[in-house]
Amino acid sequence: MNLLAYHDEARYPDGHELATSGLSGADAYGLYGLVALEHVRRRGGHLALYNDVAQVVIGRDAAWDQVAIMEYPDTDAFLDMIVDPDYVAGLVHRDAGLSDTMVLVT
């Protein structure tokens, strides 16, 4: 499960081709999502939920914008994905878009 909070404007590293593009954080994360979803599917997983957070009902009032739940056949599939060089290259979009995140394995 991924809890996601976005920058208003994406924060790419200096010199990156999208550094001055004006993309929103959510749009930058969307570019990462295209890469990530392909890698999830290659390993037999799928996107189970991707939704906006409407409000916090119980718990601390964190500023999460969205939640995404990915299902993998097992933890090893996830661990294999996060060291794949092509996946790692896509993290630039994730990092540019997110102001905060929490990834929970359940």
Walk me through this protein's architecture.
- By secondary structure, this protein is α+β, with helices and mostly antiparallel strands.
- The protein is built from three helices and four strands; from the N terminus they run βαββααβ.
- It has helices spanning 25-42, 75-81, 85-97; strands spanning 2-6, 46-52, 66-71, 98-103.
- It has a four-stranded antiparallel beta sheet.
- The N and C termini lie close together (8 Å).
- The mean pLDDT is 95.
Provide keyphrases for this structure:
3 helices; 106 residues; flat
Radius of gyration: 14 Å
Low-pLDDT segments, ≥5 res: none
Distance, first to last CA: 8 Å
- In spatial order, strands of the major sheet run 2-3-1-4
Total strand segments: 4
What is the count of DSSP helices, taking H or I runs of 4+ residues? Answer: 3
Mean pLDDT: 95
Q: What string gives the helices and strands in order?
A: EHEEHHE
From the spread of the alpha carbons, the general shape counts as flat
Q: What profile does the largest beta sheet have?
A: 4 strands, antiparallel
Helix/sheet category: alpha+beta
Beta-strand residue fraction: 15-25%
Helix content range:
25-40%
